[in-house]
Amino acid sequence: MESNFTERLRNAQSACDSMVCVGLDPDIAKLPEALRQKYATPEAAILAFNSAIIQATAPYACAYKLNAAFYENLGSGGFSTLAATIDLIPNHALCIVDAKRGDIGNTARSYASSIFDLLGADGCTVAPYMGFDAVQPFLEYRDRATFVLVRTSNPSSDELQSLIVNGKPLYEHVASLAAAWGEKSSGSVGFVVGATKPHELQRLRDQHPTIPFLIPGVGAQGGSVKAAARAATSKGLVLVNSSRSILYASPNKDFDQMAAKATRKLRDALNQTNH
C-alpha cells in the first residue's frame, strides 16, 4: 500500500505530467536589476521574484524545493519570506524545504516542528551522519517525507560517501539504514541522490525500487537528465530538481517567461526519456 506522501506525489505529477521540482533558491545579486530597483527591501524583491517564477512554472512543475539558507541569510525577515513563498505554491504541487538538518533530541524535534508544523511543508532534507536519532523526529510526521542525504551531487562527496565499509561504499549502507528507518516509522523516507552520479543513481534505484528519490544536480551542475528520468519507475517516483538554470534563465524582464520555457523543456526531456 502506498504511503500518503507517495500518493500525493503521484497525484501532483499526474496533474501536470511532470517530475520536475523547481528549486526556489533566490540570490538577491542575481535577480533582474529592474526588480531589485522596484522594491525597497531584498525580502520584497525576492518574494515578488518567487511569485512570478511560481506562477510561470506551475503548469510544468509538480513540486518546489526551497533552500532555507537563501531565506535565513535575509536576517529577521527571512523566515517570513520563506513562509510567504510557501503560501504561493499552488495546491497541486508539493513543497520541500531543503534545510539539511542533522541534530538530535529536542533540537531535531524543534527543527521538524518548524518545517512541518509552522511552515506546513510536505517534505524536508535531513543529514544522517548522527544516525537514527537525527532522523526519527521528522519521520514521526505521518503524511510527510524525510529525504535523507544518501549520494550527493557535490564534487567532494566522495571523501566520505565512497569510503568502502565492509565491502561496499558508505552511501549504500546509509541507503539501507534509511530504508529500514522508514519501514518502522509513521512518515515516509526518501533519498537525495545526485544526477551527477548516474551509475550510482541507477544502482541505488535497483536496490530500493519503491523509495521516492529527490534528484538534484540537473542543469547548472551538469547532471544526467537521462539517468534522472530512468530512476523513475512505477513504484518509485522521483523529483528531479533544477534551480539556477530555471531561476536565472534570463537576467531581463522576461525572466519568468524564460523560466517557464526552461521548466517545460526539462519536463519534456524527462518525459521523452522515461516513456
What does it look like?
- By secondary structure, this protein is of the alpha/beta class.
- The chain is built from 13 helices and 10 strands.
- The protein has helices at residues 4-16, 33-38, 42-57, 69-72, 78-88, 105-118, 132-139, 158-161, 170-183, 198-207, 225-230, 244-247, 255-274, and strands spanning 20-23, 63-67, 94-101, 123-126, 145-151, 164-165, 168-169, 188-193, 213-215, 238-242.
- The chain has an 8-stranded parallel beta barrel, surrounded by 6 helices.
- Helix 7 runs parallel beside helix 9.
- The protein is globular and about 55 Å long.
- The two termini are 24 Å apart.
Question: In a nutshell, what does this entry contain?
Answer:
Helix content is 47%, strand content 17%. The chain contains 13 helices and ten strands. Strand 3, helix 6 and strand 4 form a beta-alpha-beta unit.
